[in-house]
Amino acid sequence: MTTNTNTNAQVTTTTPRLDLARTAPKVFRALIGFDAAAREGLDPALVELIQIRASHLNHCAYCLHMHTNDARKAGESEDRLHMVAVWREARHFFTEREQAALALTESVTLVADGGVPDDVYAQAAAQFDEEELAHVLSLILTINTWNRVALATAKTAGTDQRR
Q: Residue 3 forms beta bridges with which residues?
């Protein structure tokens, strides 16, 4: 059983859930294509930081486990991985560009809590050219989608099921 800390509701995941890749393969392939297109041209370390932060915010253990492992394989330090969740208090671990991407990730992920503030968008626009910014935004959208897929289908952390 998992506790959803946002609502303090108990979420039971004992009933089998569908396998989206198997039951809706065209949809799943479209998501993979969107994800691949979004990350094109972006620094792989930045990609993982964005995916890790969104996964923290969405409480997606499956994706968090996957992306912290991917970041380690790509050479990311344990210090930085431990600081992603508290990056505002540990800014010296992250470049201005990474900070702008993390702030945008938070605003887009939590968009229902107040939209994307102009200052957050402006900070990101100052750090990324227009095409890069479009890719960063698209990556944020894809990881939020993947988080929701993993949570809705009760994926288990530690069982990386990428094909």
A: 10
By the 10 Å C-beta count (0-12 exposed, 13-18 middle, 19+ buried), 83 is classed as middle
CA 138/CA 49 separation, integer angstroms: 14
Amino acid found at 12: T
pLDDT digits (tens, 9 = 90+) for 9-37: 555 556 778 999 899 999 999 999 999 99
Q: 123 is written with which tokens?
A: 């900070």
Q: pLDDT tens across 99-140, in order?
A: 999 999 999 999 999 999 999 999 999 999 999 999 999 999
